[in-house]
Design brief:
This protein is of the alpha/beta class and 421 residues long. It is 31% helix and 11% strand.
Length: 421
């Protein structure tokens, strides 16, 4: 094998990437859909959005889909829909983007963080039940970096305790858990569709559910212009006209228009991405130090569009080589590799010190009976993940010669790890 590029050898990656990593794929059809909304002057309407919702719900086989201006808004609304309120608790992983959990604080609730499984990076079902209290209203499993959570045991625990489950699908549009689309297994699914996601529509979010109460509460919370039409609940209907959350969460219709086009082609594009990403990992099967972050095959579970694709690092297999040095060497080969993932939320000052709403005490514990904050060492698996995960190339096309070069970069560094220590 050639000398490592970081030490002056030739790079493993020689082929220019071209559009291999460009996303989303925007065509004239997307442009025309956006222009139609602009020319009709209906950017703030709902007719295109309602059609997008119908198509999105149909894709998921769900009764309801409700479009939002962001994924954060969809998650916030899902929590309200599930009656998360003052003094309540939600259980969520700490290894995730902040929107999976922080909206609970604005509802007067707090967050109890659970550990993640070190191989899936998703919430560990074994660490949930002992965290459930009389105040727990919802569990928020995050299908992290495209990997579906182990939903069966999560649903079993939640149903036994009468707790709602809100799936955060922001990383995993189209992913399957044992043959079922993620987002359709819990009581509600909520997701971001911003321009970096695998289902990218510009900016926006979506909530899906089969529960009419959750749907009507979601409409009443942030879609004031739709309450008279969509809300029949005797508790909510008399309040029509003003949003219960004091927020306007409707999706911009240009996003809805682009979303309809993107959704039309998404499954086909997703299949290409899955073929490319699985080929990359197949080439690295058995290479020391690196492990695929994907469900075992065959299991009926898939990674969807592989958003924020990552790999698992095993430094003990490479003589303790740090992930930082490993990633640096891969990048020197022309490859894509950055150490770490989302920083642990439970250690951030906003979750420990910030008095956001002027309660005179940290917002995290403003309405709790005790102190639920979780300091350093409280979630050791989560806290160790920064040294055990790294980003990998996110291929949007199946071009074996390019994928093989990128896999060769990882293999080359792993096989010459001794030279880096």
């Amino acid at each position: 094998m050639s000398k490592l590029a970081i030490h002056g050898g030739p790079k493993a990656v020689q082929t220019p990437p071209g559009d291999m990593f460009k996303w989303p794929i925007i065509t004239e059809e997307d442009e025309q859909a956006a222009l139609e909304v602009l020319r009709a002057g209906k950017m703030s309407g709902t007719d295109v959005t309602v059609q997008f919702e119908k198509e999105f719900a149909q894709w998921h086989g769900m009764d309801y889909a409700l479009a939002h201006n962001t994924g954060t808004a969809a998650l916030h609304t899902a929590m309200f829909g599930c009656r998360v309120g003052v003094g309540d608790e939600i259980i969520a992983p700490s290894l995730t983007y902040w929107a999976s959990a922080l909206p609970a604080l604005s509802l007067g609730a707090t967050i109890v963080f659970a550990e993640v499984d070190p191989d899936t990076m998703c919430i560990d079902p074994r660490d949930i039940e002992h965290r459930i209290t009389k105040r727990t209203k919802a569990i928020v499993p995050v299908h992290y970096c495209g990997h579906p959570c182990d939903m069966d045991p999560i649903m079993e625990v939640a149903n036994r305790h009468g707790v709602k489950v809100i799936e955060d699908v922001s990383h995993a549009h189209g992913a399957l858990y044992k043959g079922r689309l993620v987002g359709t297994i819990g009581h509600a699914g909520a997701m971001s569709c911003m321009s970096g996601k695998s289902l990218a529509i510009g900016e926006g979010g979506m909530l899906v559910t089969n529960d009419r109460e959750i749907y009507q509460r979601a409409v009443a919370f942030g879609h004031y212009e739709r309450t008279r039409r969509d809300v029949e609940d005797p508790e909510l209907a008399p309040l029509a006209g003003l949003p219960l959350g004091g927020v306007k969460y409707r999706m911009h219709q240009i996003s809805s228009a682009v979303g309809r086009v993107q959704l039309k082609y998404y499954e086909g594009r997703m299949a290409v991405i899955q073929r490319a990403m699985n080929y990359f990992w197949d080439l690295l099967e058995g290479v020391p130090g690196v492990k695929a972050h994907r469900p075992s095959r065959p299991s009926g579970s898939t990674m969807g569009g592989w958003y924020a694709a990552h790999g698992l690092y095993r430094p003990e297999e490479l003589g303790g080589l740090s992930i930082q040095k490993f990633a640096e060497a891969v990048r020197a080969e022309g490859g894509v590799c950055s150490p770490g993932a989302n920083l642990a939320l439970h250690l951030h000052p906003v979750l420990n010190e910030a008095d956001v709403y002027g309660h005179g005490r940290p917002t995290r514990i403003a309405h709790t009976e005790g102190d639920v904050r979780q300091g350093p060492g409280s979630l050791p698996v989560t806290e160790a993940m920064q040294e055990r995960v790294y980003s990998i190339p996110w291929f949007k096309h199946y071009r074996p010669e390019v994928i093989e070069e990128h896999a060769a970069a990882y293999r080359k560094v792993a096989e010459h790890a001794e030279e880096l220590k």
